[in-house]
TrEMBL record:
Disordered: region residues: 1-21
GO CC, any one term: mitochondrial intermembrane space
Protein's recorded name: Cytochrome c oxidase assembly factor 4 homolog
Residue ranges, compositional bias (Basic and acidic residues): 1-13
Coiled coil: none
PROSITE patterns: CHCH
Name of the gene this protein is made from: COA4
TM annotation in the entry: none
InterPro entries: Coa4-like, Cys_alpha_HP_mot_SF
GO biological process, one term: mitochondrial respiratory chain complex IV assembly
């Protein structure tokens, strides 16, 4: 029996419960993630998909940097408002 391809992005009911899917969706980079998966499914060679991988990586790095900055600002604000 053949196992399903890990690159098959057809929607299933349990996709909604996948924590990785939810995490990537929150970053705003989901479409780029799917583009990497589609490229891998089509070409079966990660070297061919480097532009998609780099674009997805850049998106994730931008999200992480923005998140770090947001957390840093929140921490600074809570430090300033804390009683001495």
């Amino acid at each position: 029996m053949a196992s399903p391809s890990p690159h098959d992005r057809s929607r299933k009911d349990d996709d909604e419960d996948d924590p990785v899917e939810r995490m990537i969706s929150r970053t705003g980079c989901a479409e780029l993630h799917y583009a990497v998966q589609e490229c891998m499914a089509e070409h079966q060679d990660w070297r061919v998909c480097q532009s998609q991988v780099q674009t997805f990586k850049d998106c994730m790095m931008n999200f992480q940097n923005a998140r770090k900055e947001q957390l840093r600002k929140q921490q600074a604000a809570s430090t300033q408002s804390a009683p001495s």
